[in-house]
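Support request, please re-run this one:
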Amino acid sequence: MENIDETYRYITALATAFDIPERGEKLIERIRDQVEEAAADTSDVDVPVLTLSSVPDAGAGVKTSGGSSFANGIITLAGGTNIAQGELQNFASLSAETVTQANPEVIVIVSGFANESDEQLKAAIIASPLLAQTDAVKEGNVVVVPQRILLSPSLLNADAVQTIADAVKNAA
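Re-run finished. Output below.
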């Protein structure tokens, strides 16, 4: 997945159900403009991005978003390259070696799954020995995005694109 077309279909269906198709079209146009503006100046870069919702355990693999995920579409629109894009599934497990070799320049923490606060989860991920030497951690390009706007259609998907695009621009 390389887009958020599911969001646009959702808005169209909802606007049709409420018999306000023009308002739906305007909302879609506004979101498309937000996404386009957020991703401006990122098309010429190749910035590897890793998504995490928990601290990785090197022995068990690194759980992340695969190439078929909605998150992959948002990362792509933000100008990043999901390091698991070749794994054509929603959720993928990568080896520690694969993650180290990919050297993510941006880490996106997917909030809303962990028991700890966003700040605690971010601190634990940054402190992870597996990730400590990545460019993302060394350069401070670790961002938190709520799962409700990263993993599924939402009227706020453009906010997720913006957050990741800002990190991609910082890494470039």
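The chain has a mean pLDDT of 93. The chain has one domain: 4-171.
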